[in-house]
Amino acid sequence: MVSMRLLTAAAVFVLFAPAGSLSAQADPDRTVAGGGSFPPGWNVRTEPNRQTGQPAPLANVKFTNMGAGGLHTTVGPAAIYWRAQDTVSGNYHIVAKMIQMTNPAHPEAFGIFLGGKHLADSGQTYTYLLVRPIDGMYSIRRRTGYTTRPTAIVEWTASDAVTKSDSTGNASNELSVEVRGGKAKYMINGKEVHTGDAAELNGVVGYRVNHNLDVHLGPLGIHKM
User: Which CATH architecture best describes the domain 32-224?
Assistant: First the structure.
């Protein structure tokens, strides 16, 4: 009888646990050769390990300068990438073209962030726009605290603005955010997908790439208006 109850409980968990969490359990952060050293001036902060709350190893983040073509990252853990000099306020526009090189094992996303503060410590905050080419979805999220789960400003939403990955896993998407007059307009490939409040968006801007992805990061354009 006990065995039957345990089996039933396990079956209920499998049926109702979020699909993403099950996929992630079956797809741990991969080991990446050649990681751990980064272009001058760039900072990298990995996501915390859920058990320890400590950052995942930087050794599994390969982040390289491609010259005028931008940057490239191949990662195990999810991470953000930024330079202290890329701090903006008031009215501004940021834009970057990002190219997924291969499909991940399950839906994973990448994008740009803005309004970054305390990025290297426990008080980390930022807002980010993500695309998920494997299924053509996007989301806008806000992180307030390094070990705190982000909250959704826009939950995962299907949009024809997102370029889906082709048969090889390749997909190019241009992400941009225009902050003007207290409002932020979020765009994907030139198409507006959301407009919201910009009260928390003064700060550092940069990139975010989720786990087990291989992504080319086009130059981050930052334009004051």
Answer: Sandwich (2.60)
What the block records as the tokens of 93 is 């526009």
Residue 142 to residues 24, 138, 155: CA-CA distances in angstroms? Answer: 21, 14, 11
Beta bridge partners of 80: 45, 208
Give which of 109, 101, 99, 190 is closest to 154, Cα–Cα: 109
Three-state DSSP class for 154?
A: strand
Q: How far apart are CA 83 and CA 104, in angstroms?
A: 27
**Beta-strand relationship, 71-75 and 221-224:** unpaired
| Per-residue model confidence as pLDDT tens digits over 170-224 | 999 999 999 999 999 999 999 999 999 999 999 999 999 999 999 999 999 999 9
| Backbone angles phi and psi of 119, in degrees to 5 | -65, -25
pTM here is: 0.88
Tokens of 46: 């990995």
Segment 46-62, tens digit of pLDDT:
998 877 888 999 999 99
Domain boundaries, the chain: 32-224
